[in-house]
Write a structure and sequence with these properties.
The structure holds two protein chains of two kinds. By secondary structure, chain A is an alpha/beta fold. Chain A contains five helices and five strands; from the N terminus they run E-H-E-H-E-H-E-H-E-H. The N and C termini of chain A lie far apart (about 40 Å). In chain A, about 45% of the residues are buried. In chain B, the strands form three sheets. In chain B, strands 3, 4, 5, 6, 9, 10 and 11 form a seven-stranded mixed β-sheet that branches. Classes of the chains: A alpha/beta, B alpha+beta.
């Protein structure tokens, strides 16, 4: 029956090949930590708090805050270059909207492919769209870190609390990469 | 496409085909027309553009759609072949929209493409611009925007509950196409505001969030009607950023009253832009005070925040459409911004 019916999903597409993670550092001590925030409310505050916990607990080097101005779009090449030149690892987030969560995952995958270990934080309300982007990028098992939604209305104190738990998961992602059972 | 006599139709087969298209996951929830090489070719003859030209893009997903892809979806949506140039121009227009490129299709806001057609092609294709202009019953009005939605679904693969994250969505997401009732408008058409000559067949499109009616039939002074628009436009629920944009689908009778009072379209726009506002205290009362959000804050409680950044047509496009049978107009909330450009149908 389907012989003459055109499949409309066979569109031109330039989906990138399956990605692998960058190699992991042995420790975070003295490493430059990029904090790539997306301009969403409280995103910079959460990343900054995570960065400071990493510094306290892991002795990381300078924090390098950067902003992705168009949160839904792919990272511009000059920002990728800046991240590669100025950071040893990067924390990306916080994906807390329909387009910016998926985009954060895409950015993480791109930076891993370019050799920069990245930890991506999204809120749990956007798990499905984050996962959909990982699959679209050919990396179904790409690990992103979920935190409780929402974050936009957290107080400074609540952000500090949240950052304590998040920092350990960020450190694990940056150091270990993928849990053994999920590794390719 | 010739119409066969009823006895030649095969309703059972049509039902099976319809079910097959549902099962493949290609549908927006309503039955589809199957696209075949023959039917797609019938659409492609209505354009001189190369079938491999890329017209629609979603760079963050590495997705794109060609002229041919758009024809496939126009067939599936139930368009007639001669509508196809309008579909193409609608994508030309949407491809100039920052919001459509920048994540609008995936957004929690779930915005709809709002497509406005100007020029003689409205009559040629039977595009409704009068009574029930935003409602059902007119094939081009219903199927052209549906073709846009099917392209988003199947070419971009932006599908609800996955890459499409609409919180509640909005009614009629893929049904908002209107003609401007140029014949009953006292002013130049929208396409002139969009940079094209009057009389040009053209499409204007942007993403929008919702419609809100302004029912004002018993006025005695045009300023009362303007004040009613300003009130609707300044409601706090839709206030997200410092400024916002909105369109007005203006009833021909409201337009007539303004014109008789000596106002042109820009006069109307400037009046409304000058009167649509909220104070810092009013916004703060609903938890939306701008004092902590903007670099030039904090603001005194009686500080007036205008809804609109300025009175350019791009921030408050006005389209005359609908029936004169009752003086009701519609405010349409623009998602983000409109490029301010209209696009020729070629």
């Amino acid at each position: 029956m389907s012989g003459g019916i055109i499949d409309p999903t066979k569109s031109r597409s330039t989906v990138t090949a399956a990605g692998t993670d960058a190699s992991r550092p042995e420790q975070l001590r003295d490493l430059r930590v990029g904090l790539l925030e997306n301009g969403k409310r409280n995103a910079a505050q959460v990343l900054d708090a995570v960065g400071h916990v990493l510094a306290e607990r892991h002795g990381t080097g300078p924090l390098v805050p950067l902003i992705k101005k168009q949160f839904a779009m792919p990272l511009p090449d000059d920002l990728v270059d800046e991240l590669l030149a100025g950071c040893d690892v990067v924390v990306i987030g916080v994906g807390d909207c329909g387009s910016c969560s998926a985009s954060a995952v895409a950015d993480g995958i791109r930076l891993e492919q370019a050799g920069l270990p990245a930890a991506v934080i999204c809120t749990d309300a956007f798990e499905t769209t984050s996962q959909a982007m990982a699959e679209l990028k050919g990396d179904q098992a790409y690990p992103f870190i979920l935190t409780e939604h929402p974050i936009a209305n957290l107080t400074g104190e609540q952000i500090a609390q949240r950052a304590g738990g998040l920092a350990e998961r960020v450190a694990e992602r940056l150091l270990v990469g993928r849990p053994a059972s999920e590794a390719a | 496409m010739s119409s066969p006599v009823t006895s030649e139709l095969e309703p059972a087969t049509a039902g099976h085909v319809s079910e097959y298209l549902f099962e493949r996951g290609w549908s927006d929830g309503l039955p589809l027309v199957p696209a075949t090489e023959e039917s797609v070719q019938a659409f492609l003859v209505h354009t001189s553009r190369d079938e491999d030209e890329i017209v629609a893009r979603l760079p963050q997903l590495d997705r794109e759609a060609t002229v041919r892809d758009l024809a496939v979806h126009a067939v599936m949506a139930g368009c007639r072949p001669e509508y196809f140039p309008v579909v193409l121009a609608a994508w030309d227009a949407l491809s100039a929209e920052r919001s459509a490129l920048g994540g609008g299709w995936q957004s929690t806001s779930g915005p709809a493409p709002f497509v406005i057609v100007n020029g003689p092609i409205r009559a040629e294709l039977g595009i409704n611009s009068t009574g029930g202009v935003l409602g059902p019953g007119f094939r081009p009005n219903a199927t052209i925007p549906r073709a846009i939605g099917l392209t988003v679904r199947n070419s971009f693969r932006v599908i609800p509950h996955a890459l499409e994250q609409a919180t509640q969505g909005l009614p009629g997401r893929w049904t908002m196409l209107i003609g401007e009732d140029e014949e009953h408008s006292p002013w130049e058409p929208l396409s002139v505001d969009g940079g094209l000559p009057a009389g040009a067949d053209s499409v204007t499109a942007t993403l929008v969030r919702t419609c809100e009616f302004v029912d004002n039939r018993h006025f005695s002074d045009p300023e009362e009607v303007l004040r009613d628009f300003a009130d609707t436009l300044s409601r706090s629920g839709s206030w997200i950023f410092r400024h916002s944009s909105a369109a007005i689908v203006l009833n021909p009778d409201h337009a007539r009253v303004f014109a008789e009072a000596g106002m042109d379209k820009q006069d109307v726009r400037e009046w409304i832009v000058g009167h649509a506002s909220k104070t810092e205290a009013e916004l703060a009362a609903v938890g939306k005070g701008l004092s902590g959000q903007l670099p030039d804050g904090p603001f005194a409680p009686d500080h007036v925040h205008p809804v609109f950044a300025d009175a350019r047509p791009a921030n408050l496009p006005i389209i005359v459409a609908g029936s004169r049978n009752a003086a009701m107009s519609m405010v349409v909330r623009i998602f983000s911004t409109w490029s301010g450009r209209s696009f020729p149908i070629r």
